[in-house]
Amino acid sequence: FDIYEYGAQAGVQVPDGDPPVYEQIVMGVNDRTHITDGFEAWPPSYFENILDTCRNLSARPVTVAPAGGWLSATFVTLDPDATIITWNAEATGIDLILLADRYDPTGESGLLWIDNDVLPILWNVMVNSPRNRLFEQGDEYFQVALAVPDLTRDAPPAPATEEELTRARILEEIDPEAGDEDE
């Protein structure tokens, strides 16, 4: 069994099902990308074998520690089954209420670039806590996301210039009256 030699199969298989289900596996191992695909016709235990092989590639796997990331927060109602993580805006310097007030689902605003001492703490929480988690600040609850460029799918790129970096680090309350001087 060689996970690296199992080539793309979708082009040589008859699609099955209505509609057919296309599946693709992309693995990045030792700076090499391996891609295979197919229509649900994988050899028996193929995916489990890939997972086992990848888990055993190194006795000391590399731990990812991002240098920066885009933080977003959205207001949510309390889920009694969620793990609650208390957020201290004063200690972290990041007010989730202000951040959530800026949130725009189109991705045009509501992102805060963090690359300071809060990042490793937040990264640890995101990686090591259950997925069903909420952040609590005061009486409010939030779904928090951290999008890391080149690691998180669809993450915006890191700020490229000092001006972009300065603007991306600013978290201010939005004043709806601001910018209306021309009227």
Protein described:
The structure is a single chain. The protein is of the alpha+beta class and 183 residues long. It has 5 helices and 7 strands. The chain has helices spanning 46-55, 89-92, 96-102, 118-128, 162-168; strands at 23-29, 32-38, 69-76, 83-86, 112-114, 133-137, 140-147. The strands form 2 sheets. The chain has a 5-stranded mixed beta sheet. The longest helix is centred in the C-terminal third of the chain and has 11 residues, at 118-128. It is elongated and about 55 Å long. The relative contact order is 0.15.
Question: What composes the largest sheet?
Answer: 5 strands, mixed
Q: H/E series, N to C?
A: EEHEEHHEHEEH
- Quaternary state reads single chain
Treating each run of at least 4 consecutive H or I residues as one helix, how many helices?
5
Could you say which structural class the secondary elements and strand pairing correspond to? alpha+beta
Ranges with pLDDT <50 over ≥5 residues?
173-183
Q: Strand order of the main beta sheet, please?
A: 4-6-7-3-5
Total beta-strand segments = 7
Amount of helix: 10-25%
- Which band does the percent of strand residues land in? 15-25%
Q: What is the overall pLDDT average?
A: 79
Span of the ends, CA to CA: 70 Å
What is the CA-atom radius of gyration, in angstroms? Answer: 22 Å
Shape: elongated
